[in-house]
Amino acid sequence: MTRTDENVRYPLRSKRPDYAPGSGARSVQNVLGVLEGRWKLIILFELFGGRLKRFSELERAIPAISQKMLIQQLRQLERDGVVARIVHPEVPPRVEYHLTEWGQRLCPALDQLLIWAESAPDEIRQALIVPEG
Amino acid sequence: MTRTDENVRYPLRSKRPDYAPGSGARSVQNVLGVLEGRWKLIILFELFGGRLKRFSELERAIPAISQKMLIQQLRQLERDGVVARIVHPEVPPRVEYHLTEWGQRLCPALDQLLIWAESAPDEIRQALIVPEG
DNA sequence: CAGCATCCGCTACGATACTG
DNA sequence: CAGTATCGTAGCGGATGCTG
Questions:
Q1: Entry pTM
Q2: Shortest CB distance from A18 goes to which of B64, B81, B105?
C-alpha cells in the first residue's frame, strides 16, 4: 500500500470547501474535482482524438509524463467513471483506454475551454510564456 | 518575499509538460493553467453571479477559504488578466473585484462544465460524496 | 507490455498572528 | 476592511528499479 499517493479522492483538490453544503453547488464542485490533476485534461484531450488508445500510445503522445503519473491519473479517471479500461487477455498484455459515455459528454465543455484559451489576448499569451525548456 | 508561495506561475501545475513543443498545444496548455488552483473556479463562479464583489463578500460566499488563499488566487487571476480590481480611496478601504472582458468570455465554457457536472450519473455522484464534514 | 513499489524533493495549501 | 508575514504539513509528482 502506498503511503499517501494514489487512491485518495480529492474533489477540487484534497479537502473540499464546505461550500453551500447540501446544495447542488457542493456536489458540482465535487464532480468538477474529477478533472483536477496535472495531466487529466491532457489525457482527455488525447482520448478525444483517437477513440481507443493503448497505454504505450498515451506514453508516446505525452512524452513528459512519467509512467507513475500516467497510471495514477488514468486509474483515477477510471474510478471516477470518465474513462474505461479494456484488458485483452493476451501475451504480451494489451490494455486499451477510452472515454465512457459520460466522459464523451465532456467534449462540448472542453471545446469551449479551448475556444476561450485561444481567444486569449496577445499580451496575455506573451506573459504566459515560460522561459527555459 | 515568501519562500515558495505566491507569485509563481504554474501552467497546468508547476512544471509544464514539453507537450507538442512550439505548437499551439503548448500555449493552450499554458493558458488553461490560468484556471489551475484549488479555488479559481469557485471564485470565478462567484464573480459570474454578481458583477462586482468586495473582498469580504467573497470571503462570506466561500466560507471554507482562508484569507491567504483568497488573496493569492485573486492576485493570480488578476495578474493573468481574468479578473480586475478596483480600489476605492476610502477609509475604511473598499476593494471590488470583477471579471475582465476576457474573463467574461469564460462563461460559455463554465456553463458547459456545469451542464456536464450536473449530468453525472447518480452512481458517480454517490461515489463522490465524501463523508465527514 | 503494462504495471507496482519505494524513496524523496518541492510546493500548494492551511492556520495563525499582525498591520495600515 | 483588506490585506501581509511566517511557519508547518500533506501529498503531488519525479526517478529508478522490479515483476508477471
A1: 0.84
A2: B64
